[in-house]
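Translate sequence into structure tokens.
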Amino acid sequence: MKLFLKLILLIVVIFQANRIKAQEPTDCINAVIACGNSDLTLNVNGIGSQELNSSNTCSSQENNSIWLSVTTLTSGTLGFTLTPDSSDIKEDYDFFIFGPNVSCGSIGQAIRCSTTNPQAAGSRGNQTGMNSSENDVAEGPGELGNNFVKWLDTNAGETYFIVIDRPNGNSPFSLQWTGTATFSEQPIDNSVSTGIVLNLKKCDDMSPFDDGFTNFNLSDNTAHITGTQSDVIITYHDSVSDANIGINSIDSPYINESNPQIIYARITNNTSGCFELTEFELNVDLGPNVITPTDYIICDNLDDGNAKNGRSTFNLTTKNNEILNGQNPADFNITYYSSIINAENSLGALPNSYYNVNSFNEEIFVRIEDATNSNCRNITSLNLVVNEIPDAFDALLIQCDEDAITDGLTIFNLNQANNNLTGAMPGRSTRFYTDLARTFEVDGDAFNNTINPQIIYVEIIDDLSGCINNSELILDVTATDSNSASLTSCDDDGVENGLHTFNLNDADSDILNGLPLGLDIVYYVSINDAILERNPLNKTFTNTNPYSQTIYARVENANNCFGISEVFLSVLNLPNITSEDLIYYCLNNSPDYIKINAALLNDSPNNYTYNWSTGDATYEVQINTPGIYTVTVTNINNCEKTRTIKVEPSNIASFSSPPFKIIDASENNTITVFVTGEGTYQYSLVNDNEDTIKPYQDSNIFEDVFPDTYTVLVKDIKNDCGIESKMISVIGFPKFFTPNGDGFHDTWQVYGISNMIQPNTKILIFNRFGKLVKELNPLGKGWDGILNGIKLISDDYWFLIKLQDGRIYKNHFSLIY
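Result follows.
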């Protein structure tokens, strides 16, 4: 038969390191009584007094120990298996058993002990204990033994001390009892089976009433816990350690130390000493769940005959729903008090319709009670605030009759009277009504009066507090008027688009001509804006309609309309001319003259006057010098525009010295032309037959030029000032000749020589052995391969060329038949 042990919350006891030493179950006198039918899971940590020595404990002592006391209820065998939580072979548990029926301080020799080290003994596991298969009663230390010894044969009523010790490791352990002997059962918490909740909840009925501390009668739970059990005693403890050890019990009435607080009840069997722990919670109810209400704010009024004294009547019940924050009002009683003391003691409740005592701001207190238990209450505060109403003044608003019908009816912008209505106080707004009861609100931005004069009823509102005061606004339509005016300007702001910036003050004198002094003028883009005084214009205004636009000037006498005038804005065209130009003058044509003019577009020159920088006053003038010339053109509206003509020089090209760089007698003959001058130049190459070999190009370099004599042409394209030319020669010679009479390559001659260029050149031809075979005439047709009437054989021949300019060329060519 398997038996079990249950120890409630023993681990907590073990780790109460700072408790009194005698409270630790690490000593015999404090041994834990094993009762019940449940697994035992424990930890061991430290020792109390060292009560073991090698003479009675298999050569060991206490290292980290716990003492158990076991009393058998029936006779039989008693064994156990101890299993460390960690399977690491280094976790080493020992045990020692004393008895039967020995006393602390005189425990005698251990009747069973095991101090085998499982790692040293080469064990497969780290379990230890007593069982039926072993015959030895002691083993160890170290590698000696196999961790198990023989179990006990016990008689009913015998008591044994079992010491569990951990010399190595830090793992807790579990203990499973085996054998046929039985233990006494531990008492039980009867409330578990009956379903009775032990938690105690009570209102905070001790002063101060909001700190969460009050007294509880713990014994109210005694009968619920005991039930039908006899020979048990119930004690209450404020810590699980005290409850486990059975010390420092607390009595009723008990004032809680925290809120909520756990109380531990110890149920002890007086005969067996077995006990059970249970727990319950003390909870102090701080009263209904309420929120602190927002300030109760109202506006002062004339109900008490004085709208400025900061006192008025509050309907306190209007705050009830906010205070309860969604809770059922039927579950609570709410009353209001002038002081917190009165609220706590429910003395002298204020009437629900309350006229405040302290002007403008007063704090009162709200008591919220549970409807079924007046002791469960909460208290909060409420600020009563009386805001002043804003000042309000009656005003007059005069408007001009400018809607094309002189009938005394027009449109008013009522908001223009706001400063007069509010005394120009900031943070004020207005609402307008046509009836005294102020029920028919009208648009203050645009209101059409129905009679002249007409009373408008006004509410003056404090934007911060929302408080309202009343006044009246009289609307009157005047028959006075003001003068129209015109402003004209040339379109001379740099962009000819019909738009111009006007200084509207320039029209003031014409508008006010003959009117009383002290009038003000404000300009608007439309008649409606002028009537309603919306979107006033700056004094500097750029017209939005090109060339012609009408705006409106509102003339006022102390913000009352005197008249609205039209102001005509005109932007005049400038002369239509080409304002800038660039032309060129050929310096090689000087002192010839060229003509320049004012460049009018689509109009007759006779409609304008001219003023040239040369002093001329005609449409067209003649010049023969580069420079900058200007002419100011003025039309009949006296609007003027200036034309600027830049005359830049150009010229025919002048060849530099040297004029050319020629690379000839090469695979790629090139000519580079060098010229100077004010023009922009292009270059061409023609041969002696005036055939164009290279057409005009921007580059001054000719490439891949065949050997010959040429003329280089350089022309000005900036202003077509003319062409300059110069002859050149490109020297070259063929690689072979074939004197077979077919008309192709029949002779050999040096190219690029003429009677004009290098005519005195000397040309000598040698055979491969260096013998002179021919001296050529540089201007002749060339050598035909005959020497003294005999055709020479096909072979390579060498030549020596000495040009007239001193250059010398040596090379060879082939004679081929």
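Note: The chain has a mean pLDDT of 90.
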